[in-house]
Design brief:
With about 550 residues, the chain is of the alpha/beta class. It is built from 13 helices and 20 strands. It has an 8-stranded parallel β-sheet with strand order 11-10-9-3-2-1-13-12. Bound molecules: 1-deoxynojirimycin.
């Protein structure tokens, strides 16, 4: 593929949520045939790799994150042979493949769980999970007070073979996602084998779901009110690093050192996060710190600075993520008064200025694409798709909606099937005579379609295409250096207090983002790219970014 072994230090990675990307067979659900047909689109977009959220057989309890078989493909999406062909086709176009491995939990329909239910209390089959007797009279209360990330208790009681109410099992997410016991050697061996299985099929990366949660304090103590770093009974326990050190040896061995491990490490403490990126552990981890910041120059400046510093200390590249399949779409988030993403509140119905959100999302794209490290683009962000907020209750699929009795709308709004064509019954998501998309596309979805934006100089898609091709072509953007341009009171580049962020890469490349209220003059320079129109006097308006090359 002509890239260096450390391709992951700089790659632009496109996240495909297979069920919503493109529907090849017309059943209303996106599939691998749909992705294969659209590989030229992704190659032309200018990304280096594709991360597929789970494509394995699953009961759909959590959009594929309830895996029933890690070595096969969900029949709704295709076949293993098709996945192999997809990995090959993508590779031929210069696109690497990253698969999503879910080690924290397996689907309740996985054979291991059936075995555990049948084998009964105290069995070795149950030791692969967390089965415990309940508390209280007759064991009627859950073993402890842990709560599911999706709402409600993290325990469910089973009925034993003789029909009596039995033990409880742990599920930190949906009840159909059963937590595995990573102190059980069979669990470890099984996943090492799964890694080898996919690496042997040519994947270049493994995204690790809920990577910090796999090791639990064996005593299962209550979660302290304010757990300090490393002090949470099931998040970021120190022992977790042993697992990933072992995974690193497996991945290095299988891939000759070319494949990368990407952790979903959702930790506020950056030193605890970068501990996962020590040279013998994961290659990269998602950086959610930036996503948690408001659209404010000081906050973004501080987040970028501390992120780069923390990563530099361990010699790992940072990653830049504006959104994914779990969070509010960027244009919607940035169109609100409170622009920081907070998983605790998805804020439906909050007044949203989508035109403002769109301007800021475009500026934010230029900001993150100019930073050193790897870049993630969530499918549809290149089209400027907004969050779909008016999905009927009966059509919602995310377990968060049901488990919170509808108080949290969940994540369906960022998973609505993509519009490829302005016309057509599903806007080209599937064939015109195919079934309706599994989540409804709202009115007006066609205005965001790929064909409607192609060739349109002011569209989000054109901006992403130009941005990604420049990011690849400009030698300044390949390194790891970044220098902030600080104010001396005279330079037009330099007035952080007014909300202008500016940094150089190399000697002459400058990225400017105007988060202040007033237009600012650009330095004497060649303008390479702007996220929106300049003013009549060629100043950079509010909520706009520019890439320039100094004379
Ligand atoms: C993180 C994934 O991104 C999310 O979609 C999923 O619900 C949880 N992990 C549980 O697997």
């Amino acid at each position: 593929m002509g890239q260096p072994v450390d391709w992951w230090r700089h790659a632009a990675i496109y996240q495909v949520y297979p069920r919503s990307f493109a529907d090849g067979d017309g059943d209303g659900v996106g599939d691998l045939a749909g992705v294969r047909a659209r590989l030229p689109y992704l190659a032309a977009l200018g990304v280096d790799a594709i991360w597929f959220t789970p494509w394995y057989p699953s009961d759909g309890a959590d959009g594929g994150y309830d895996v029933a078989d890690y070595r096969s493909i969900d029949p709704v999406l295709g076949t293993l042979a098709e996945a192999e062909a997809l990995i090959r086709d993508a590779g031929a176009l210069g696109l690497r493949t990253i698969v999503d491995i879910v080690p924290n939990h397996i689907a309740a329909s996985h054979p291991w769980f059936a075995e555990a239910l049948a084998a009964g209390p105290g069995s070795s089959a149950r030791d692969r999970f967390f089965f415990r007797p309940g508390r209280g009279v007759g064991g009627q209360d859950p073993p402890n007070g842990w709560q599911s990330a999706f709402g409600g208790p993290a325990w469910r009681r089973v009925t034993e073979q003789d029909g009596s109410p039995g033990e409880w099992y742990l599920h930190l997410f949906a009840p159909e996602q059963v937590d595995l016991n990573w102190r059980n050697p069979q669990v470890r061996t099984e996943f090492e084998d799964v890694l080898r299985f996919w690496l042997r099929r040519g994947v270049s990366g493994i995204r690790i779901d809920s990577a910090t949660m796999i090791i639990k304090d064996p005593d299962l103590p209550e979660v302290p009110e304010r757990p300090g770093p490393g002090n949470h009974p099931y998040v970021d326990q120190d022992e977790v690093h042993d697992v990933y050190r072992q995974w690193r040896t497996v991945v290095d061995e299988e891939s000759g050192g070319t494949a990368a491990l990407v952790g979903e490490v959702w930790l506020a403490d950056l030193d605890r996060l970068t501990a996962y990126l020590r040279p013998d552990e994961l290659h990269t981890a998602f950086n959610f710190d930036l996503m948690a910041q408001p659209w404010h120059a000081d906050a973004l400046h501080a987040s970028i600075t501390r992120t780069l510093e923390a990563h530099r200390r361990v010699g790992a590249p940072a990653t830049w993520v504006l959104s994914n399949h779990d969070v509010t779409r960027t244009v919607t988030r940035f169109g609100r008064a409170d622009t920081a993403f907070d998983p605790a509140g998805r804020r439906p119905g909050v007044p949203t200025d989508l035109a403002l959100g769109c301007r800021r999302a475009a500026a934010a794209a230029l900001l993150v694409a100019a930073l050193p490290g790897s870049l993630y683009v969530y499918q549809g962000d290149e089209l400027g798709l907004p969050e779909v907020e008016d999905i009927d209750a009966e059509q919602r699929r995310d377990p968060i909606f049901a488990q919170t009795d509808g108080t949290d709308p969940g994540r369906d709004g960022c998973r609505v099937p993509l519009p490829w064509t302005a016309s057509g019954t599903s806007h080209g998501f599937g064939p015109d005579d195919g079934a309706a998309p599994w989540l409804p596309q709202p009115a007006g979805w066609g205005t965001f379609a790929v064909d409607a934006q192609t060739g349109h100089p002011a569209s989000m898609l054109t901006l992403y295409r130009t941005m990604l091709s420049l990011r690849r072509a400009l030698p300044e953007l390949a390194g790891q250096d970044l220098r902030w341009v600080h104010g001396d009171g005279r330079s037009p580049l330099a007035d952080p207090a007014s909300g202008l962020l500016a940094f150089t890469r190399g000697d002459r490349f400058v990225c400017l983002v105007n988060l202040g209220p007033d237009p600012v003059p650009l330095p004497g320079a060649e303008v390479l790219l702007v996220s929106g129109p300049l003013t009549a006097r060629s100043h950079l308006p509010s909520d706009t970014a520019a890439w320039v090359r100094l004379a």
